Amino acid sequence: xxxxxxxxxxxxxxxxxxxxxxxxxxxxxxxxxxxxxxxxxxxxxxxxxxxxxxxxxxxxxxxxxxxxxxxxxxxxxxxxxxxxxxxxxxxxxxxxxxxxxxxxxxxxxxxxxxxxxxxxxxxxxxxxxxxxxxxxxxxxxxxxxxxxxxxxxxxxxxxxxxxxxxxxxxxxxxxxxxxxxxxxxxxxxxxxxxxxxxxxxxxxxx
Length: 206
Fold this sequence. Notes:
By secondary structure, the chain is α/β, with parallel strands linked by helices.
C-alpha cells in the first residue's frame, strides 16, 4: 500500500461519507492534553491536523492555531466544525492545505508545534528537524508516533506499513544543546494489543 496524498484523500473522503458521526465524536488526543494543557496559549502549529480534533481543542483553549493537512476532505470537515462552534473559535484557526512531506513552516514562529501520527514519506530525522525549526526559543515540540508492531504480541498494528516518528529518531534529530527532552518514551495504548505510542515532548532552550 502506498500512503501518499491520494491514499489519504480517498480514505478521508470515504470515512467522512460513511461514518461522519464517528469522526465527529472522536476526542482530541489524550496524550496531547496531558502534556500541553498547562502551557500558556500562544501560536501553535498542528501539523497533519486531519479532521481537526486537536486544532479545535487548542483553539477552544485560547491558542491561535495553524492547522495543516493535505486532505481537502478532512480540512473541509474541520473548517465546517470550527464554524459551527462559533466565530470566536473559528477566527483563531488558519487552515492550510499542504503536504508535510514538502511544506516548510515559518522558522521560529510558533510557541508550540504538534505532529501526531503522521506517516513520514521520507526521512524521519529530516521531518523532525523541519518541524522543530518552526519552534520559537522557549517554545515546545510535541510529537507522537504509532509503532507498526505491538511489542507485547509481535503483531502488526494499525500503523503497519507506515513510517512514523520514533523515540530513537526524534532523539537523534534534535540538537541536545538546544532542546530539553521532557518526555521521550514509548507508552502502551489503552486497548491491549493495539501497540504502543512513541511520545516526544521537548522544550527549546536556546
